Amino acid sequence: MMPIRRTQNWLPGVFNDFFTNDWIEKANVTSPAINVLETEAAFKVEVAACGMTKDDFNVRIDGDENLIISMERKDEKREEKKNGRYLRREFSYSSFRQTLILPDNADKENITANVENGVLHIEIPKLKDETKKQQRAIEIQ
């Protein structure tokens, strides 16, 4: 009789183990999706930033004139008082950093960024190509 009593609670244990997310492989937890679009006038970068605010991001140009996009938000570990309890909880955020090498025709002085509807939008205007570079032959002496 003892083995039967010991295994009476196996069903709730199976469900509790299933709904914990420790065994689930998390793909791209710290790497949000990025789109880069080139138009005639600009390069447009979109970063999936669901639940993020502009304060969670840092967009800058480094010393090598590369575009650095970084974000940091701490995991929410505290449990809020709610009716019920979570059986599965996957909302978590951590740090992310992406370096984009800017092309020579990027106008690095006029880059703009904003967060709208869960997407970080960065617009990198292209330099006006007012003077076409002339090809010329170099005389060898």
Keywords, please?
11% helix; Immunoglobulin-like; single chain; four-stranded antiparallel β-sheet; mainly beta; three-stranded antiparallel β-sheet; elongated; 141 residues; disordered N terminus; HSP20-like_chaperone; 7 strands; A-crystallin/Hsp20_dom
**Sheet with most strands: strand arrangement:** 1-2-7-6
Basic shape: elongated
Overall strand count = 7
Q: What is the third-level CATH name, the topology of one domain?
A: Immunoglobulin-like
Would you mind describing this structure in some detail?
By secondary structure, this protein is mainly beta. It has a domain at 27-78 and 88-125: Immunoglobulin-like (Sandwich), CATH 2.60.40. The chain is built from 2 helices and 7 strands; from the N terminus they run ααβββββββ. It has helices spanning 2-6, 10-19; strands at residues 34-38, 42-48, 57-61, 66-71, 96-101, 112-116, 119-125. The chain has a 4-stranded antiparallel beta sheet, with no helix packed on it. The protein has a 3-stranded antiparallel beta sheet with strand order 3-4-5, with no helix packed on it. The termini are far apart. 9% of the residues are buried. Mean pLDDT is 76; it is low at 1-5.
Brief synopsis:
This protein is mainly β and 141 residues long.
Task: Set out the fold topology.
Layout: H1 2-6, H2 10-19, E1 34-38, E2 42-48, E3 57-61, E4 66-71, E5 96-101, E6 112-116, E7 119-125
Antiparallel strand pairs: 1-2, 2-7, 3-4, 4-5, 6-7
